[in-house]
Amino acid sequence: MTLRRTSIRIAAGAAVLGSVSALAPVSAAAGSPSERVRGGAVVSVEQVADLTAEEVAGELRGKIDSSQVRHGVTAHRMTYRTTDSAGAPTTASQLVVLPKNGARHLPTVSWLHGTTVYRKDVASENPRSNDRLVALLFASTGRAVSAPDYVGLGSGEGFHPYGDPRATVAASVDALRAARTLAHRNGRELKRKVQVSGFSQGGPATMLVGRALQQEDADRYFRLGALAPIGGPFNLSAFEAAAADDKIAKASLYLAYFATAWKKMYGLYTAPGDVYRSPYDSKVEGLFDGHHTPGQIAGELPPESRHLFTEDFLDKIRKPDGVLKDRLRPMDTTCDWRPNVRVEIFHGRGDKDIDFSHAAYCADQLTRNGAAPRLTDVGDYDHNGSVRQAVPRVVRFFDESAKAD
Fold first, then answer.
1. Strand 72-83 to strand 189-199: parallel, antiparallel, or no bridges (unpaired)?
2. Residues 201 and 303 both lie in one domain
């Protein structure tokens, strides 16, 4: 059975997510407070770190510039209620970090992480992860930080709906609400305006969450303060097409993660053999279960997409049409709106995972809508190196934005 006949039969019925139109608007993705009345309710909290300013600087040393560290921090692993890609109730986890600066009213940052295949490689679980370090840095500057693991990662339930805007917004906004509850328990208050930043997958997530907060339908309290996406694939159709053509680093891993997740969410294909070449068709789906590390997956799969996928499937990814094209559109237009706050887009020209053209694509969409984003090239650094260079600049940008309010 060929891919053309069966593989791109993306379900449009209620058994998956509803019609294509149900996915497209960001307001629908976020859901109203009445629709998600339990979203953000705290299930459990555990303190995972209590650090002095000197200890925070020590954690960052040799990885991220620590010159902006001013305060010690406490970090908490939290499980909270949210909704999944189908809008059904579930739980997710996050890291919440608070500064030890004595301030009652705290500026708030939402930090949205990049592509993660192993569920323990997130800020709430892995103290050595870049995302844990970033959260520590932001908090040490006097901010409260909500760093959601997204649905299906960390200690959350189910699978990770990779690239789904509905679950991304729900988990991130509900994480803010849960973080506010934790702050209240500690006699503190999170300020209403949220400064949002994220890396890689977290780049478009930053724009999705920012738009939801600006539209005021995501939460009755929180509003958008500033936007600072880093190294994001803002044109998902182009990104997956580049992966199909082996024009990016880790092409087969990115595309396989996309394919397996979208099969679960939208019925992207029927049988593994329609998409994956033998002998990989018998193992790919099992590798992306959240319990395999990137190294383990890379050890089982060829690095090139042309050796992993059938040519029919690659053709569909190169030139998506029909329902697949409709499903991709929300992730091709995360920057297609006009923020009423300052926006700075960061990217590294040396990034081999996500081309710099994605940053320009986002800036162009924002500019066409009347916004005035800044586009900053952090230098000739690879994908992970670029975020370490960008984050201290994001801190300065957030400081500037707060002063301008």
1. unpaired
2. no
